[in-house]
Amino acid sequence: MSSKSQDVEALLAQKYRHGFVTDIESDSLPPGLDETVVAAISRKKNEPRFLLEWRLKAFRHWLTMKEPNWAHVHYKPIDYQDISYYSAPRAPKNAPKSLDEVDPKLLATYAKLGIPLHERARLAGVAVDAVFDSVSVATTFKEKLGKAGVIFCSFSDAVRDHPGLIERYLGSVVPPSDNFFAALNSAVFSDGSFVFVPPGVRCPMELSTYFRINAAKTGQFERTLIIAAEAASVSYLEGCTAPMRDENQLHAAVVELVALDNAQIKYSTVQNWYPGDENGLGGIFNFVTKRGECRGHNSKISWTQVETGSAITWKYPSCILKGDNSVGEFYSVAVANNYQQADTGTKMIHIGRNTKSTIVSKGISAGHAENTYRGLVKILPSAAGARNFTQCDSLLMGPTCAAHTFPYMEVKNPTATVEHEASTSKIGEDQLFYCLQRGISAEDAVNMIVSGFCKVVFKELPMEFAVEAQNLLSVSLEGAVG
Amino acid sequence: MLKITDLSARVGGKDILKGVNLEVNAGEVHAIMGPNGSGKSTLAQILAGREDYEVTGGTVSFEGRDLLAMPTEERARAGLFLGFQYPVEIPGVNNVYLLKAALNAKRKAAGEPEVDAYEFLTLIRQKMKFMQMSESFLTRAVNEGFSGGEKKRNEVLQMLVLEPKLAILDETDSGLDIDALKVVSAGVNSLRDPTRAVVLVTHYQRLLDYVIPDQVHVLSGGRILKSGDSSLARELEKRGYDWVLETRVA
Q1: Min Cα–Cα distance to chain A from B79, Å
Q2: Do A456 and B92 touch (CB under 8 A)?
Q3: What is the pLDDT of residues A415-471, one digit of tens each?
Q4: The pTM is what?
Q5: Closest CA–CA distance from residue B247 to any residue of chain A (Å)
Q6: Alpha helix (H) residue ranges in B67-177
Q7: β-pair type (A341-350, A370-379)
Q8: ipTM summary value
Q9: H or E segment at B131?
């Protein structure tokens, strides 16, 4: 091996910066899963009857289901009885009413992660819901949002304060029986975020949820539900991190988006769960179901994801384009290094007339990683004039990684237009040599080449997070921010 | 400035250079000519620091330093520039951004502050005008979708901005129409000065009508077989390389 490729290897050696554990007392359920556990979670959250019934129905259905095995990922069977389905930082008797009552250790944890929860310290114009293990610990800027009529709160608060909205929309995009992990989530989900933007309102600030797994042997099963009413619009971002642990931890979330007539939802993810060490030990199993429904005409849902973490990623943020002239977008950068495995992509289901979808997927593989794009574009007979454009590019760094592309297309309307472009390239020794010969260091060169490759996706991120994503990418691939 | 002594090298187990000797002084322009596969490009790449080649013997000194011991990027920062025969495309990376990073890396190594953005833009506009390149090159990605001629102009543009002490141009003239050749030649000539040197690696004498070399060398079979002044290039054009090879054998 030439010394130059050793340089690249060294640069790829990854340092995970969020791997610390917060020492905090927690209130956890013992590992194991049966109906009493489902009922216990529901009871802890003082849920209304309909929700308990909903959970139990999902649980019973889950028992009949098999874990999916079609994804291009490999892992030892998960023992679902060895996971704790609920863990919450032990709070004083009553839930904290304001940030001042939140355990300072928690505030310190988020500060360390770069997410200060005190409003005066926050990024201007971004409201945050912080979810720690199974519960939401704080939501900022609630009042300001309230004035605009926007509801942004933890899922538990929404169940308590807006049960009507929950009953109406929960499971309306991802039904509990949708798939194995969605069914499991529906049975045991503990918290998450809820957003409702009323008709005609443009949400005055970016909304974001920051998910943190802390406790060992715990699964995180959160649920996000975002509803943009007629002509409303909202931009939402989620971030995720976890401590470094040798065992794998399961994260099985469900995200549902509903856009009514003329509404717009932009959902961005910067996912940085612990990916495991350089030998593939530990890391998060990120098995997530994300789906948005453009229920109304002229509505638009846009997914942007930057996936750098997790030992295994299994997620396909999708759009059901029901309303006429509705638009679905999916912009993705998926990075897999060391022994990470990513099987990710999207589904665009065209139902309405003149519906339009765009898919841009950028996969970066390094080390021994496996990176798969899997996408479905389905045009139903009703979707006259539907259009799709798909572009999938893969970048390989080093000789031991792999990239796969599985684009599926089902076109049942002859007036539809579907375009697909794909490319695979190696981070060329040629490109690297070219930059080095211009005096640019190997580290800067790799950075430059990778961010050039991802540029079209980063452009879609809200400004504050584009920078963070870029930094994250540098860390994931190089152990240094460039 | 550059002194190559008995340099030999192999790639993939095959000996390509078999004892090259060459001395280039400041202020000089040298042309290295020779048939295909004679080792011209290999020599250029080795001087620039490409790792794929194994140096099996000899030494190279650049301004008194052991060039072969210097990493690629350090050679560049010390003022060695290679104009690539096949400049690579780097999608999504802005052409000007790369050039600015290159200039700043060089300035940093020299202990100078980073170039001011406005100053840089003024500089690059002026050089682009000289190279007769359109403003669109400011916003395009590095070599992406450039024609062969545009790529070569871009190489010379980079050279003019970086102002190297030693420029090695590997077949920068190939694939150029006559107008482009004139522009590229003017670019090279503008860099000529008593403190700098240029090594032109070329197949054809054509370029040497516009950039008159001080010395011409014929590289063949991994050795320099003949050296002379610019009249040698014209003789080669007329009589081909066989003549040199035969003289050598005789």
Answers
A1: 9
A2: yes
A3: 999 998 887 777 777 888 999 999 999 888 888 888 888 888 887 877 666 666 666
A4: 0.78
A5: 38
A6: 72-77, 95-109, 117-130, 148-162
A7: parallel
A8: 0.95
A9: none
